[in-house]
Predict the structure.
Amino acid sequence: MLIDTHAHLDFPEFAQDLEGVLERAKRAGVDEVVSIGISLTSSEKAIELANRYPEVYATVGIHPHDAATLTEKQVTALESLAQNRRVVAIGEVGLDYYRDRRPRVVQRQCLRQQLEIACKTQSPVVFHVREAHADFFAIVTDYAAALNGVVLHCFSGDWVVAKRCLDMGFYLSIPGTVTFPKAEKQQEVVRKAPLDRLLLETDAPYLAPVPYRGKVNEPAFTRYTAEKVAELRRCSLEEVAHQTTANAHQVFRMGSLNT
Ligand SMILES: [Zn+2]
Ligand SMILES: [Zn+2]
């Protein structure tokens, strides 16, 4: 069994054939999928999907591309979405200084507002951090003691950054890009990190792994990432599947929601 810990199932790419997407995932051994919110609307849609399909879970949050100073009303809305029983984390939230779609000061403020919500609701947090690791550490340090689990999705840092995250008790989520021949930095992280701190994800519909590079990504393709991780670590696919699934259940407390 594998878990895709980061997919955007509410995106238009999947609207026509979501049942087919979930069916193919199941056939590839991907039994659970976390659908990630990027705005209030998308978070509500993720919850809707999680209510409709037992194998889908949801997160709620505002992506740094959509960062804004949240009004009291928006904070309250996010807080109440976070209480939904199908919601496993706040996210994806963070800082993106690569695309820089919103002023950095606004991104930082929006992130802090959502970390307050995570602390208050005792939710784990799924972070999106691109070319902003220094500011990420500066902010997350203020909340680390109160946060109930931290995941760096689509981990893009080098081993030095990875080590610092691991020392703080964070999980690193590995996307399909690890299968790209030039992904040496990411591959080094996968080889060196303890297996009990790695998660697998697609970030579907983006970042399809080899052999589907450039195509629309979907949860079933988590399997190619798992195979690459097993190859890099010289262990079996079963071991990778077993441990990364246990990790996801641990950080997102997914098992307890099933019972
Ligand atoms: Zn992201
Ligand atoms: Zn994403």
About this structure: The beta strands are 2-7, 30-35, 56-60, 87-96, 125-130, 150-152, 171-174, 198-200.
